[in-house]
Every structure is written in structure tokens, then in C-alpha cells.
Amino acid sequence: MLKINIAVLVSGSGTNLQALIDASKAGTLKNGEIKTVISSKETAYALQRAKDNGIKAYCVPKRDFPDQQAFERRLIEILKSEGAELIVLAGFTIILSPYFINEYRDRIINIHPSLIPAFCGEGFYGLKVHQAALERGVKVTGATVHFVNEIPDGGKIILQRAVNVKDNDTPEILQRRVMMKAEWRILPKACEMVCKQLLKEKKAE
Ligand code: GRF
User: Fold this and answer.
1) How far is the CA of 12 from the centre of ligand 1 (A)?
2) Number of folded domains in the chain?
3) 137 C-alpha to ligand 1 centroid (Å)
């Protein structure tokens, strides 16, 4: 069966990558296959998750490159050599420049741990997102999967899922709930939706 070739870019624990791997095994992610994982950090446990599941893994530490463009050129070189058709940013902490985005226009999706347009954009990532939500006193937060364009967290929204904030939540407790009840559910679903659409377009060519 023809499947979309997926590359997942990571920087951390890889729990969202794990959700994609589990969905693949469960048959809910069936129109795409994770062929490549690229980490921007050697210490990312996501690399171990890739290896444990027989997925080709590359480590491209940003600090090994003189500038952003050299770093992105290396990413693109790997992605082209692996035939990646859809790029999934899963806990990837580096903002990609228009140079990279142009190479994969409308082929990059990202998981963000809030209900965009709340708590997103420059400087809103990881725990900081949940800290801001708690400081603002919102009663509902959640996660968003969106296409990536030149505006950080500004691309077309694909899926969102809401999560209740509880009275004694700390940023860590809230982050965990958002990951479990939102991120890990909507990222595989969004991936499957986009792969299905890309396959349809491919067959129509
Ligand atoms: C999570 O907070 C997620 O919301 C964000 O990156 C963090 C780590 O994700 N996208 P992961 O465990 O590396 O997938």
C-alpha cells in the first residue's frame, strides 16, 4: 500500500514521536510511515525511541553549524536523501527559517501545547506555555496541530483538543495532562488526515 514518507524532527523526550509510533502499530496511522527521525540534540531520548522501533535516526546538533542556514541545509540534505514527503515537528525546539519552509511549503506540521491563538508565538514553548496559562488563570487550555509557515505557530490549524485546568495545577502537572489528553491524541490523528489528503493529491497527479 502506497504510504506518505514521514520524517519526525525532535529535540527532547519524544513522547509525541512515541504516540505516532504507537498509532502506526495500532493501524490508526495507516496512510503514512515514519521513515526518519532527526534530533537537534544528542541527549534527546527520542533518538532511543527511534532506535527501539527500527526507525533510522540522525542527530544534527545545531551548535555544530556556523549558522542557521548551514544547519537547515544539512536537515534538507537528509530529508531529500530519505525521500521525506511530510515533516512532523514533535517537540522540536528550533524555529525554522523561510529558507527551510519554502523547501517544504504546506508539508510541515507542528504540535503546540496550547489552544492557538492563546499562549503561542515567539518564546512560548514547553513549560513556559503552561506557566503563562496558569498565570492568566484560564480554565481551559489544550493542544493544537497546525501547518508551519513563516509566522511562529501562525500556520493553518488542523486539529485542536481542549483540556480542563484544575485548581492546584502546577506547570508540570498541567503539561502532563495536556500531553496525555490532547497532544498524544491529536498529533497521530492530524498526521493521518494530512497523509490521506497528500495521497489523494498524489494519485490525482
Ligand atoms: C511538549 O511540551 C510538547 O508540547 C512540545 O514539546 C514538549 C516535549 O515533547 N511540543 P516530546 O515529549 O519531546 O514529544
Assistant:
1) 7
2) 1
3) 22
Q: What does the block give as the cell for 158? A: 488542523
pLDDT in tens, 175-193: 999 999 999 999 999 999 9
104-116 tens-digit pLDDT:
999 999 999 999 9
Task: State which residues form the domain around 116.
Answer: 4-204
User: Identity (one letter) of the amino acid at 95?
Assistant: I
Sheet-wide strand order for 86-89? 56-59, 32-39, 4-10, 86-89, 108-112, 140-147, 157-164
Distance from C-alpha of 156 to C-alpha of 146, rounded to nearest angstrom: 5
Which CATH number fits the domain that encloses residue 200? 3.40.50.170
Please check whether residue 122 is in contact with residue 84, taking contact to mean a CB–CB distance below 8 angstroms.
no
Q: Is 90 in the pocket of ligand 1 (CB under 6 A)?
A: yes
The catalytic residues are 112
The pairing of beta strand 32-39 with beta strand 4-10: parallel
